[in-house]
Structures are given as C-alpha cells and as structure tokens.
C-alpha cells in the first residue's frame, strides 16, 4: 500500500471459513492499516439493493432519465389522436436498461415472462453457463474429461458453450 498503487481488493465467499468472517477481516485490516490505508465493507447482495449513489450512478441516471423522457415524448406523439392518448399497445409500458451493452426499452409484458418475482432475479442467469469453466479455473478436484468432450477448439466466438466443452 506504500507503493504507487493505492487500492486493494479482498474477495471472500460467505462460506469460506467460519472464523474468517467479513467483519473479522475488516477489523484485521483496519487495525493493521494504522493510517497507511483504510477499509470498507461491500457485500454485493446489499449493494445490489441500493445505497449511496456514486457520481457514476448520478451521471448514468441522468442519461437514462433524458432518454426516458425523449422516449415518452415520442410515444405520446404517436399515441395522440383527436385530443386523446391511446396507449394500449405492449410497448407503451416499458423499462429502460442495458441489454447486451445497449440501452434499450423492454416492454413490461416481456419482462414479466422472464422474471422470478419472488427472488427478484431473472429466471435465466446468463453466467450460469460459466460455472463449469469456473470450477476448472478454481482447480476443483474434478476430471476435466467430464466437461471437455472431443478435441479442443480455439475459441473465436464471444459466447461459451457447454455442448462444446467450453
């Protein structure tokens, strides 16, 4: 911490050890830091539920707000006829957000089909297909032949496939 790099990151699994809890590690690093560095705790599950917004959050929120108002103005102009607004199509109620690196409007009717409301998550998690590769990278005591069938191929695609073994 006394070098040019002024930050560090400690990641831990909630079940990694019964005595080395998040609070214990925080207290340990805070005690040993003694003015050289400070610590803070970020539990991802808690962060995903909100908290104090960062400047990035504020800037991004402003950009999404502008896009949302422009979208609503466009939809109102399309749906306005003879002094009345007819907003009864599926795309008249949407949620703005990122979809594959692009800001997009998703109709609520589509989101309802793919959402697990009880757990507040999508029904299909995009990263679940990466679990097999994560086990290999974590050096689990597994046989690699269970996951890699046939010959290895050079990965030139952006997506991973369980069927191909990677």
Automatic annotation (TrEMBL):
One GO cellular component term noted in the UniProt record for this chain: 6-phosphofructokinase complex
Known catalytic reactions: beta-D-fructose 6-phosphate + ATP = beta-D-fructose 1,6-bisphosphate + ADP + H(+)
Highest taxon above the source species: Eukaryota
Biological process per Gene Ontology, one example term: canonical glycolysis
PROSITE patterns, alphabetized: PHOSPHOFRUCTOKINASE
Pfam families for the chain: PFK
Record key words, sorted: Kinase, Magnesium, Metal-binding, Transferase
Domain Phosphofructokinase: 7-71
GO molecular function: 6-phosphofructokinase activity; AMP binding; ATP binding; fructose-6-phosphate binding; identical protein binding; metal ion binding; monosaccharide binding
PANTHER family for the chain: ATP-DEPENDENT 6-PHOSPHOFRUCTOKINASE, LIVER TYPE, PHOSPHOFRUCTOKINASE
Protein name from the UniProt record: PFKAL protein
Organism: Chauna torquata (Southern screamer)
Native organism taxonomy: Eukaryota, Metazoa, Chordata, Craniata, Vertebrata
